[in-house]
Amino acid sequence: MTRSSNGRSGNGDGDRNGDRDDGPGGVRAGDPYAPDPRDGAASGVQPYYARSAAVLAERYESVSFETVHRDVLHLLPGAPARAADIGAGTGRDAAALARRGYDVVAVEPVRELRQVARKLHDDVPVAWLPGALPALTPLTGPFDLILLSAVWMHLDEGEREPAMRRLHDLLASAGRLFVSLRHGPLPEERRMFHVSAEETVATAGRCGLRVIHTGANGDELGRDEVHWSRLVLEKGGNMTGSEFYRVEPSARSSWRLAVLMGANSRTYKFALGRALLDLARQGHAEVPLRDLAVPYAMSLVEHAAQAPQASERTPVGTADFLAVVAAESAESRRLGTPTDRLLDAAVRSLPAMVLRKFHNLRGIPELPHRFYEVTGSGGSAGGSGGPGRRIVRLTDDLHRVARSEQAVGLRAELGARWSIVENSFATGIGRSLIADGFTVDRATSVLTDTQRRRSVAGVTEAVIGFQHGRCLTCGDDITPECRTVVDHVFPYALMKRYGSVSGWPGPDLDQLWNLAPAHETCNSAKSDRLPTDDELRRLARRNTAIMESPVPLKRTLQLTLEPPGNGRRPGGWPEFLREVSGLVS
C-alpha cells in the first residue's frame, strides 16, 4: 500500500475542489428542480446542482483531470479498459478518461449537469447515463476503473455499505475504485455527512475491497477549514504483480512483469525490451545510448508499418516521437537503419520516456530486478554531454534472462504481447476487443479478433509467460528443444460425451481459459483424463495472472469468469474450476 500526504497540493477546481462536494439536504415539495423519476434514485439528486449547473461547470472545468488526480494517476489501470465515473458532474473526468483511451460510462443523477456535460464534451465517446448510488440501476459491469469523486459523503450511514457492495459487484477482478472524501464543516443547506477515510476503508474491507493507496490533500481554493482524503481500493481475489513474482522469484519473473502486466498506452516498452534482449544475447556489457536507439527505432518502424503503435485516442502531435517514426519510416526502411532525424529523436525521447518507466509497474514501487542503468548527464542530442553520450549499462540480471534456457520463449512472448497490444490500438478493433476479447482458432491454436477474424498471436506465445514458461501438466520448464502443444486442461472430449457440444452444461472448453501450453509428451500421457488438483491449481494461478494484465487478453477471461449481468463468481478462478469439475465428478 502506498501513502501520500501533500498538504495543499492535491485537488482543486472551484467549490468542487476537483470533485463535486456541494448540494442541499433534501428535496423541497414543488421545487422546479426536484428530481425527475427517470433520473434514478431520488436521494441521489440534489436540486442545488440543477439550479447551479452553468456556474458549477465553470468551476469544475477550470482545473484539469491531471491536476486534480495527479497523486493517483500512476495507479490507473492501463488503457484501453472499461471505466465508470459515478457522479460525473459536468463530465471533465469522464472526458479525460475517454481521451486517455478508456471506454467510459458517466453516471450523473442531475439532468441539467448531464446536458452541460454533453455540450462541453461532445467530441469524446462517453455514454452519459442517469442514476445514483446506492442502486446505480443503469450500470452493467464489469469495470476496470470506477471513479467516485466527492460523492461518498453525500450518502448516509445506512446507504454506504449497500453502495460499497454495489460498487464491488460492478468492478472486474483487480478493478480499482478511486474515492475522494471532503472533510470540514458541513454546509447548512446541503445533504452531506462526516465520513472518515478509516470508516470508508473498513466498509470497503467488509465488501471485499482492499486499500492500496491513501492520500491527504489540502483545498485548492485555500479554504483552511476544508481538506480531502483520497483512497484507491482494489477488488480482491486476484493475483497482484507481487504475488506473481512470489510464485517464482527470479529475474525472468521480473522481466515478465514488465512485459506482460505493465500498462500500455504506446508500444515503446516492447521495442526497448527487444533491443535489450538482443544486445545482451550478443554479449554487450554496456552500450552508448545512441547505439541502443538504432534497434529501438527500427523495431518501431517495422511495427508501425503494420499496425498503430498508440491508441487512436492518444493525441500524437507533429513533434511526437511516433510522428517522427511515421515521417521517416519509408527512408529508414530503404536504408535499413534509422535516418539521422529519427535517430536523433529516439536519442532525445528514450531517457525521458521508456528508459525511465520500464522498471515501474502499477501496484509495485519498482521491479525486484533492474535490467539496465543509465549513466551520464542530459542535454541536447548533439551537444557535449547530451543524451547521445549517455551509456546504458546492461545488468547481470538482464544477461541471465537473455541467456537463460527460456530466452527464445521470452522473445516470442514479447512479440506476442506486442501484437496483442497494437491490435487493441487498431481503429475500430480496440473497442471490439474491449467488449468481446479474443476467440481461438482451434485448428491453428491462434488467437483471432472477433471482428476481422485475423490472426493476432499464437496461444502458446500469448499465455506461456503467465505460466512462468512452464508446462501446465508437469510444472517443468518448456525449452526450445521441447515439442510443445496446446492442451485442453479439461479434455474437449467431455463436451462430446453429452451427445453434442450443445448438450454440455458447462462453459466452452475450447476457449482460452481452458487452453494451456504443455510438453507434447505430457499431453500424450494425459490423453482425455480429468485434470489433477495440481493442474487445476496451476490453471487457476495462470488465469488469475492473466486477469492482472491489461485488456484485451484480460477481457477474454473476464467474459468467462464474469458473464455480463451475472457479476463475478465468488472465489474467482479456483471456485470456477471446482464448479466445472463438479459437473463431471
Helix content: 25-40%
Distance between the termini: 41 Å
Count the helices. How many?
23
| Quaternary structure of the protein | single chain
In short:
This protein is an alpha/beta fold. It has helices spanning 47-51, 53-60, 65-68, 92-99, 111-120, 157-170, 197-206, 241-247, 251-261, 268-281, 289-304, 321-335, 340-352, 354-357, 396-402, 407-425, 430-436, 459-463, 493-496, 520-526, 533-546, 553-561, 572-584, and strands at residues 2-5, 82-86, 103-107, 126-129, 143-149, 171-183, 209-218, 227-235, 286-288, 372-375, 391-394, 438-441, 446-449, 455-458, 484-488, 515-519.
What do these coordinates show?
The chain is α/β, with parallel strands linked by helices and 585 residues long. The protein folds into three domains: 2-236, 3-Layer(aba) Sandwich (Rossmann fold); 243-402, no CATH class; 419-584, no CATH class. It has helices at residues 47-51, 53-60, 65-68, 92-99, 111-120, 157-170, 197-206, 241-247, 251-261, 268-281, 289-304, 321-335, 340-352, 354-357, 396-402, 407-425, 430-436, 459-463, 493-496, 520-526, 533-546, 553-561, 572-584; strands at residues 2-5, 82-86, 103-107, 126-129, 143-149, 171-183, 209-218, 227-235, 286-288, 372-375, 391-394, 438-441, 446-449, 455-458, 484-488, 515-519. The protein has an eight-stranded mixed β-sheet, with helices on both faces. Strands 9-11-10 form a three-stranded antiparallel β-sheet. Helix 10 packs across helix 15 (396-402) and helix 11 (289-304) packs across helix 12. The chain is globular and about 75 Å long. The two termini are 41 Å apart.
